[in-house]
Amino acid sequence: MTERFRRGVARQQELGGAGPRRRAYDALADVAPDLSRLAVEFAYGDIHSRPGLDAAQRELVILGALITTGGVEPQLEAHIGSALAAGLAPRAVVEAIMQAIPYAGFPRVFAAMAIARRVFDDRNLLPLQ
């Protein structure tokens, strides 16, 4: 296990563990066994662990990127959970998703909000206060 991988796993643990990410990684292990290692090393060990932004700020950036990309529902679900674990309030997550309307459009924002609702419901955070 490389130092980059250890650093990435530690960062994932800070953000609530691998959870939904692990399912995505495991689903492709028979086709691309190195893919999850590379994702952990690069995305979490190298990029997410950099100084300059705290974990909550990074998760806001990631949410915006995922919403505008579209078609990345498992990643969006995982990062909404990570945003909550990083200390963002559910209302802040909702506002971040709403902020994407002018840039990503209503369909992608509605899809993202439905995923956020599911994450909030799974964590017994509904109704939002």
UniProtKB/TrEMBL annotation:
- What keywords are assigned to this protein? Lyase
The record lists the organism as: Amycolatopsis viridis
Give the source's domain of life in one word: Bacteria
Record keywords: Lyase included? yes
Domain Carboxymuconolactone decarboxylase-like: from-to ranges:
33-117
Q: What is this protein called?
A: 4-carboxymuconolactone decarboxylase
Question: Per its UniProt record, what InterPro entries does this chain match?
Answer: 4CMD/NDH-1_regulator, AhpD-like, CMD-like
Q: Does the keyword Lyase apply?
A: yes
Q: Name one Pfam family in it.
A: CMD
Q: What is its EC number?
A: 4.1.1.44
The EC class name is: lyase
Q: What GO molecular function annotation could you give as one example from this UniProt entry? A: 4-carboxymuconolactone decarboxylase activity
